[in-house]
Amino acid sequence: MDHKVVQTELPEDEYNLLKKTADEKKLTLKEGVREAVRQWIETQMPLGEDPLFKLRPVKTGVKTDSANLDNELYGEPRS
């Protein structure tokens, strides 16, 4: 896998918060920045491109009745 180097500048207060947060999570600065970039990218992706929303139902052979779902999950009878 190819890697690219990304370099940026941060105001001192942002750098200090980044360093403190990374230290608290026992991450290096590089790991913290990578995690932040991944999370930012995920928030920018249109839902239609999210792989989760491209999943198709799978036939399991188990019959289900969604009418009883609330009762099964929350113990609430259907209204």
Structural write-up:
- This protein is mostly helical.
- It has one domain.
- Helices cover 44% and strands 0% of the residues.
- The mean pLDDT is 87.
Give the terminus-to-terminus CA distance. Answer: 54 Å
- Any low-confidence stretches, pLDDT <50, length ≥5? none
Taking all Cα atoms into account, the compactness measure Rg is 22 Å
- Which structural category fits the helices and strands? mainly alpha
| Total number of beta strands | 0
Counting structural domains, the number is: 1
Question: How is the biggest beta sheet arranged?
Answer: none
| H and E order | HHH
| Shape verdict | elongated
Q: Could you name the key traits of this structure?
A:
79 residues; single chain
Give me a quick take on this structure.
The chain has 3 helices and no strands.
How does the SSE layout of this entry go?
Layout lengths: L11 H13 L4 H16 L24 H6 L5
Helix pairs in contact: 1-2
